[in-house]
Amino acid sequence: MWAEAINTACYTQNRTSIHKRFDKTPYKLLFNRTPDISFFKIFGCKCFILNDRTERSKLDPKARDGVFIGYSLQSKAYRVYLRDKQTIIESVNVTFYEMADFATEHLQADPTHALLETSDKADSNSELEGVILNSLFRNFCENSQPSSPPCTPASTSTAPHQPTPTTEIPLLPGPSDVPSTPSTPQSNHREVDDHGFATMPESSPPHTTATQETSIPYPDSDQPIITPTPLAHERKWTKAHPVDQIIGDPSQGVHTRSATVNECHFACFLSQSEPSNISEALLDPDWVIAMQDELNQFKRLDVWTLVPKPQKKTIIDMKWIFKNKRDEEGTVVQNKARLVAKGYNQQEDIDYDETFAPVARIEAIRLFLAYVAHKNFTVFQMDVKTAFLNGILEEEVYVTQPEGFVDPRFPDHVYKLKKALYGLKQAPRAWYDALTEFLVDSSFSKGKIDTTLFIKRQKSDIILIQIYVDDIIFASSNPRLCKHFEKLMKTKFEMSMMGELNFFLGLQVRQLSDGIFINQSKYILEMLKRFNIDDKSSMTTPMSPNNKLDSDPSGKPVDATNYRAIIRSLLYLTSNRPDIVFSTCLCARFQANPKESHLTAVRRILRYLKDTVNLGLWYPKHSGFDLVGYSDADFAGCRMDRKSTSRAVQFLGEKLICWSSKK
Asked: Segment Disordered: which positions (predicted)?
């Protein structure tokens, strides 16, 4: 990245350095206007780019991890290096983390010599900025000469005609005027602090040293809970190098293979493994941070309070769930720890009463999209973070203290819940009641038939809100109402604005200038790969018109588990593909004892899907909105019991919104 560093340094100097003769910057001398430097960022800082691709699914990350490396010369975009694909892209939708927390941790945790050249009298902000810029731009911003090789002992001096040995360029080189000490076993190890961040040594492969005890702050206590963090070599490389095979001091790092720069840099931020229990999670500082973030949410939302253990009350146990969130390339983008309650221990009429929470039907979602397409609205999407933690509980519910985060002053105390937790049987109901109360108080009216639809009229304008648990889609005739609704939700809940709707409940939604297109091409491709449909043959129809399936008692049995898995996937796909409803429902009748003829019929449907991957529903904007329905039935069509199969479809203008096929 030296070329990018030089370009960025020149770009910065031309707008910040003052020419002594003219008392102006080179930029002002050339363009006769003062340059704007408010958009300047620290070179090499961590950043995230908005993932606005149309094929992004709901489970895909909303942003991509990258490193800031410069500014675009053709537009007002930033140049960002993507670690996962090792490419450089330009984008304006970038969020920066300018290494403030990263550098602060090093300044507080015995920094290496690359971070020692600071002034004691300078304030913290100036000191931090000077440290980072000095290590990144020294060779460019100060026009200094190349640094000399590190000092070596006199006994190892080179011969007169022997070329001077060179050293490997470190990831974050230190100041050239700070002399290097002779190489020692301790100095050749990579230093890992309590939060999993690391500093790269100069001209040496990455090693580790022993970490200290990690102090985990407790939400409801001023006293920290000391949880021992394992040595770094026990955490990462014990499998390859057992402790009993180490010769020497085990507290020193274990020598391993030389890691690539990308591996070293990325390993500073996220854990690549998923712990199976709390004991394994407490051994990894990255997962300790993830668990602490979850507990910080509990404290911020005032979810519980610590009380003495009551008598004759059910105390519900807690459990940690650990999951790595990955992007489309399989790269870990977030270590997510979720604290859930073991709701199966709850007793009805004691620990909970109402549990039902309305959920929007898929037909209601299609009707919503058909209406906004007819009215030429733009649909937006937002997500409520930790939605269930906002629900108010009416019952007295007590839970144990989370394992690994027990208050040392009151180890026998329990938590009395004020709000719902994930895992509680009444949590969905409590969240729905809290959201409904807030929207009704904000002058929204709840639908009488579909209670997940909320409408607000303001003079001649209207805004529609469709709720599906913690996912919200909304559209309005006036864009200002959408902006107002977004601000309104953020005043009460912690929201994640996802922009225009492009993926919802497994449906890929494309909002075009002349209508809305809905399909599930990504799911179809994944399904074909999962069931090994890779042959070149494809079908133009899902089922042969002459194929009359029956129980086939003399047929060859097949694996029922695999057959049922295919049927489940096809039934899920029928929410967007009415063309396979009849054939899928027909094959689903033989799941109890599937035969080879049934499997052949099912695989024909898959081959048909392979030929029609991009087929979907089209809702044109300029069409009518009159309800039109069609129905038909095959009289005594079933060969086994002579029952009929009725089929029906309903249109709103030219927009297909509902269909069925029932025996």
From this structure: 143-222
pLDDT tens digits along 187-234: 334 343 443 333 334 434 444 333 344 344 444 444 444 344 443 444
Nearest CA to 382 among 483, 297, 296, 293? 483
- 2-98 sits in which CATH class? mainly beta
Confidence (pLDDT) at 17: 85
Per residue in 417-446, pLDDT (tens digit) is 998 888 898 889 999 999 999 999 999 999
Angle (CA) 249 252 253, round 5°? 135
Domain spans of the chain, in order of start = 2-98, 354-512, 517-662
The pLDDT of residue 535 is: 66
Strand extents, DSSP E, 259-302: none
Smallest Cα–Cα separation from 52: which of 497, 522, 368? 497
Element (H, E) at 495: strand 495-500
Neighbours of 432 (CB within 10 A): 21
- Min mean pLDDT across 517-531, 551-565, 631-645 is at 631-645
CA–CA gap between residue 318 and residue 401 (Å, rounded): 7
Share of the chain above pLDDT 90, in %: 24
According to the model, what pLDDT value does residue 522 have?
87
Specify burial of residue 154 (Cβ count, 10 A radius: 0-12, 13-18, 19+). exposed
pLDDT digits (tens, 9 = 90+) for 602-645: 999 999 998 888 899 999 988 889 999 999 988 877 777 788 88
CB-CB contact of 570 with 580 (8 Å): yes
- The answer to whether residues 78 and 92 touch, using CB atoms and an 8 Å cutoff, is yes
This prediction's pTM: 0.56
What is the C-alpha to C-alpha distance for residues 383 and 387, in angstroms, rounded to an integer? Answer: 9
Cα separations in angstroms, 329 against 262, 272, 510, 530 = 15, 14, 23, 17
Q: What are 381's strand-pairing partners?
A: 473
Measured distance CA(22)–CA(20) in Å, rounded:
6
Token digits of residue 436 = 């409904």
**End-to-end Cα, the chain, rounded Å:** 65
CATH of 354-512, one of 1.10.10, 3.30.70, 3.40.50, 2.60.120: 3.30.70
Helix (H, G, I), strand (E, B) or coil at 291: helix
For residue 389, what is the DSSP state?
G
Distance CA 506, CA 519 (A): 9
Tokens standing for residue 27: 């930029």
Residue of 429, 354, 359, 350 lying closest to 388 (CA atoms): 429
The label of the residue with tokens 């009395």 reads: 416
Predicted local distance difference test score (pLDDT) of residue 572: 92
* The residue type at 64: R
Neighbours of 79 (CB within 10 A): 20
The answer to whether 197 and 268 have CB atoms below 8 angstroms apart is yes
Compute CA distances 236 → 83, 259, 336, 435, 489, whole Å.
22, 13, 20, 44, 43
